# Entry
Amino acid sequence: DQFETIGFVGGHVDDFNRARNLECEEWLKVRQEIDKAYKWGTVKTQEYRHTGLDLQVCERQGQRWVQLSQDFYVETIPDLAIDDHRLRGDLQQEMSPAEMAACRASLGALQWVATQTQLQICARVNLLLTELTVLKTLQVAKEIRDLIIEVRREPTTLRMWRLDDVEHWQDTTVVTLADQAHANRPKGDSAGGLLTCLGGKAQNKGEPGKLNVVAWRTWRLRRKAISTNDGEIQCILEGEDHNYRT
# Structure
């Protein structure tokens, strides 16, 4: 604790985000130099779009949080470019090359939101990517279409809460949940998944408290799980590593 943070600037290509202590003269000088160094475009405060995500700082009844959403992007995900009559027929038929290409394009759009804000579809998108390569049936296309409809109807908004009991970075508690789904993938493979959150002193004491979701992922287990316990051990290993790195 030799130094005190007076401000920061985060940059990604041509998007910049900064926060600061406006009562600090030293930071005000730094900010003035930054303002002079570049020709700036639109400047917004408390609510803006950064790296494709809508970020909003909210405060109500003493509660303060940062809200992340991709509603604008979710609304623009196009319908699956496959005729409806094909998806009402025999779903075990193999798709044509054009239909395969349409599915890949839709999964690409879904994968972007699944990795950024829509954690509720992350596992399903990961499974569909494998099924599209292995199975190649119209059943996979129908599931992709249904997932597009679902995420457009009910997009998830993430909230990063102010943790009132965190006064020092060492007051933070990192919590990771990891689990597996046994033999749910083509060729008998199993899937793993994890969810990592940041909490405060409460979690360290085993008490309930606010958790901020900071990372999630799903993957094919590295080796075939001969039992559910085998799969869970593989997931716990990945979860512990991720928890430590976080």
